[in-house]
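> forwarded from #structure-qc
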């Protein structure tokens, strides 16, 4: 047995991989098992962050580094020539929230003083009762205290310090009223937050709206279709648009995934997908369509949202 004291290498609740030339995907291993995806895009003069995760509520509380900002500024990354994403925090941040759920906003306080962007679609939803809308209250989590500094309109392009980030904001209400997507026109990448993903239930909270969501899905599908047609006409070397979600799915074929998910949800509304499970969440009966753990698409939502959507769309089952 050796008497040497070996230093332990530092540990963290974040893992990181390079998604594109300019974007890193960080995944937080959190105690709620959300495993949120945090996307960080590097510009010459700025760092754009889409969502901030669960605020370091690590599944393993003994890990050394739990601060997202510290991770971005200090953690050496093999895919980045051994350097942190934003060494010594030299570049200022623009932080965008795809929507206000706790697993996307709980590290926002670490970026106080930075530009913080949210959808302008329903400011009141964001500014009133964040504790309830973020789900912090129902989970017994302290609600983060931060200020939105820029309300992004639908189709707005983001700028930072007069620098064009070449990122377009698309309002996509449905999962929540404030849900948004980002379109990276230089890399043909669409970032959609929790609007959908594969291999895990796409969840609607009590504040969700399936008719709005279908409208947003149609909008995203048409948007991607138009971009794909343009890329084909331009004889671009890559004509695929990729979709990147808040959980599970990244770098997926956007058009195919959007189309399949839309079909699945319409089949639910027509009554052709059986309910596979039910539970009471925040006082409402929630139902599960699809088999969790095996099906590519699963929807978990308050049953009320399905009944309301059938009513509004005049679908008789
Ligand atoms: Zn969400």
């Amino acid at each position: 047995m050796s008497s040497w004291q070996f230093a332990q290498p530092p540990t963290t609740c974040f893992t990181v991989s390079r998604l594109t030339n300019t974007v890193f995907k960080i995944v937080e291993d959190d105690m709620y098992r959300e495993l949120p995806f945090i996307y960080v895009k590097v510009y010459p003069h700025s760092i754009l962050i889409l969502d901030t995760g669960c605020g370091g509520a690590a599944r393993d509380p003994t890990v050394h580094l739990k601060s997202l900002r510290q991770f971005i500024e200090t953690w050496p990354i093999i895919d980045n020539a051994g350097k942190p994403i934003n060494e010594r925090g030299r570049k200022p941040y623009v932080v965008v929230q795809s929507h206000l759920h706790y697993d996307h906003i709980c590290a926002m306080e670490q970026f106080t003083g930075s530009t913080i962007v949210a959808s302008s679609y329903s400011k009141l939803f964001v500014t009133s009762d964040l504790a309830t809308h973020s789900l912090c209250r129902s989970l017994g989590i302290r609600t983060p205290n931060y200020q939105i500094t820029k309300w992004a309109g639908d189709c707005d392009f983001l700028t930072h310090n007069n620098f064009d980030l070449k990122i377009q904001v698309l309002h996509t209400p449905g999962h929540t009223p404030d849900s948004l997507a980002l379109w990276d026109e230089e890399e043909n990448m669409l970032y959609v937050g929790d609007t959908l993903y594969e291999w895990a239930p796409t969840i609607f909270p009590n504040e969700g709206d399936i008719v709005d969501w279908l409208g947003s899905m149609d909008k995203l599908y048409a948007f991607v279709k138009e971009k794909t047609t343009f890329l084909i006409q331009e004889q671009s070397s890559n004509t695929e648009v990729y979709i990147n979600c808040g959980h599970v799915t990244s770098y997926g074929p956007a058009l195919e995934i959007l189309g399949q998910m839309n079909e699945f949800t319409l089949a639910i509304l027509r009554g052709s997908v059986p309910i596979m499970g039910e539970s009471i969440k925040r006082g409402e009966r929630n139902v599960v369509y699809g088999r969790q753990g095996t099906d590519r698409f699963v929807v978990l939502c308050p049953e009320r949202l399905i009944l309301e959507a059938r009513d509004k769309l005049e679908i008789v089952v």
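QC bot note: Residues 40 and 49 are 5 Å apart (CA to CA). The first helix runs from residue 68 to 74.
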